[in-house]
Design a protein that fits this description.
41% of the residues lie in helices and 23% in strands. The chain contains 13 helices and 17 strands. Strands 1, 2, 3, 4, 5, 6, 7, 9, 10, 14 and 17 form an 11-stranded mixed β-sheet that branches. A 6-stranded antiparallel β-sheet has the order 13-12-11-8-15-16. Helix 1 packs antiparallel against helix 4 and helix 2 packs antiparallel against helix 3. The longest helix has 34 residues. The two termini are 21 Å apart.
Length: 437
């Protein structure tokens, strides 16, 4: 029975590879046969429009005044011009058909290669029901999700003690969590943003008790990578009565915990501004010309895995690596128990280098790697850091490390789970699969 299933799966894999190769070849042949010599011009126009748009966006971010306005206009005009030239040539239908064939080729290719990706879901273990769970809830997070979804009342009905933070008073949530543990809490949880999640997760890891994540913040990246439903915060409370447990890693900047990432450079400098919370877009546009061109802020150096990067504009250190091969899953993590940090740095000094970023992780201005430790230094005594979205200023050098399996996370038995990332399209491998018998 098992052998029959494996044979059927291998046959389906080969046919998916054949479909991918046939669709890709058909797109190229159709373009050449129908457009003839004009196909070269058509491809050149599409590539030129993409490059000009990327370069114009770089100018728009790094300039002010009339130059910024002209660059923004160019970023809009370039794709419009490409569309107009395609229509004028009478080849719009051909582009649409070729794009459709390309989509078929990509979909079939991903399906064929997914079988060999080696992806496995993170394992879970059975967990007893907590006796004295303690949850901290921030009523202002996510535009008031705690009240909107009735999270406090639902948690109390499930047997939890709930501390509702006072929005008008600054509260040390880590101290609040430690007090709860001292009073006998056997599970800590947070309904709030990722910054608050990280603070309380550190306390839970310190005492070896489970941690519960309720996605009541704005972005809830940690909840997403745990396989929770971000659109249904109350569903996470099911873990109080019917939960299983994950072991996940924790990132550290010195002794400060992060569950998602620590950012240095441009983004970290922007979130330091008092005006950022009130008007994110305007503040970013005001500050980017100086921080991206390094006229303001410290000059960074990042070191990891025997690689040293000088003067990057941005460095992102993540608790487990983010996807890079699948653009649809950028900012996602398959698993959070690999025991490694991810590091991504961007070094761009011109519009041409900005356009080269379109090559993804093959771009010379983009460095992507994994390591057990990342050290970020600077030509200043302190650097701004965005730690799970919270603005900090830390002394240099900043040491980022990871502690494997440091946190026990209680999740509902029934949850959406973490979707499998699409593998990178390897056309050589697809051709071999298509020809296999």
């Amino acid at each position: 029975m098992g052998g029959d299933r494996r044979t059927a799966a291998a046959r389906a894999q080969r046919w998916a590879a054949r479909l991918a190769v046939v669709a890709a070849v058909a797109a190229v042949v159709l373009l050449v046969v129908v457009a003839g010599p004009r196909s070269i011009g058509l491809v050149a126009i599409l590539l030129a429009g993409t490059v000009v748009t990327a370069a114009a966006l770089w100018w728009a971010l790094t300039r002010r005044g009339p130059v910024r306005l002209c660059a923004a206009a160019l970023a809009v005009a370039a794709p419009v011009a490409v569309i107009w030239l395609t229509i004028a040539s009478g080849l719009l239908w051909l582009v649409v058909v070729c794009v459709a064939l390309g989509a078929v080729a990509a979909g079939a290719g991903w399906s064929a290669l997914a079988t060999d990706s080696g992806w496995k879901a993170q394992p879970v273990t059975e967990a007893p029901r907590p006796v004295r769970p303690f949850l901290i809830m921030n009523p202002r997070s996510g535009g008031g999700k705690v009240q909107r979804f009735g999270l406090k009342e639902k948690a109390e009905r499930a047997g939890a003690k709930v501390a509702l933070l006072d929005p008008d008073r600054r509260v040390d949530v880590a101290a609040l969590a430690r007090t709860a543990v001292a009073e006998g809490a056997d599970l800590l949880g947070v309904a709030g943003g990722d910054g608050t999640q990280a603070l309380v997760a550190g306390v839970a890891a310190e005492h070896g008790i489970p941690f519960l994540v309720v996605p009541a913040g704005t972005r809830n990246h940690f909840a997403l990578d745990l396989g929770l439903d971000r659109d249904d915060p109350p569903a996470s409370l099911d873990a109080l009565t019917d939960g299983v447990e994950l072991r996940v890693d924790l990132g550290f900047v010195g002794e400060r915990v992060f569950v998602n990432n620590a950012s240095f450079g441009a983004y970290a400098a922007v979130v330091q501004s008092d005006a950022y919370r009130a008007d994110k877009l305007r503040t970013t546009l005001d500050l980017f010309p100086d921080v991206l061109t390094q006229r303001a802020g410290p000059r960074l150096t990042a070191r990891a895995a025997d690689v040293s990067i000088d003067a990057p504009q941005a460095v992102l250190v993540s608790n487990n690596p983010y996807h890079m091969g699948d653009r649809a899953a950028l900012g996602r993590r398959d698993r959070m128990d690999t025991g490694t940090l991810g590091m991504l740095s961007i070094s761009v000094a011109s519009a041409a280098q900005a356009a080269a970023l379109l090559r993804g992780d093959r771009s010379p201005g983009l460095t992507v790697l994994t390591a057990h430790e990342v050290v970020v230094d600077a030509d200043a005594a302190e650097v701004p850091v965005g730690l799970d979205g919270e603005a900090l200023t830390l002394p240099t050098p900043v040491h980022c490390t990871i502690r494997p399996g440091a946190l026990r996370v209680r999740v509902p038995r029934h949850r959406p789970g973490v979707p499998r990332a699409r593998p990178r399209l390897d056309w050589h491998k697809l051709a071999l699969l298509a020809l296999a018998r």
